[in-house]
Specification:
Layout lengths: L23 H21 L1 H22 L2
């Protein structure tokens, strides 16, 4: 995947405890990087993001009302 990327992001390769098969620390680090990138994009496109969030909220409300009828 890194060969296809314009910019490669690397996170810590700290040793995980043996009893943690899910590599919790690595996953949390990667989620933090994704969250930072997401918030950066949101701030660059604030008005557009708010519009889409409102549309999503309206769609969810519509579905919830439809399911409750």
């Amino acid at each position: 995947m890194s060969e296809q990327a314009d910019i490669n992001l690397y996170t810590s390769t700290a040793k995980e405890p043996i009893f943690r098969n899910a590599a919790t620390f690595s996953r949390m680090t990667q989620l933090q990087v994704l969250d930072i990138l997401f918030m950066y994009v949101v701030t660059l496109q604030y008005d557009r993001t708010i519009k889409h969030l409102n549309e999503t909220r309206e769609a969810i409300n519509f579905i919830e009302k439809w399911e409750n009828t």
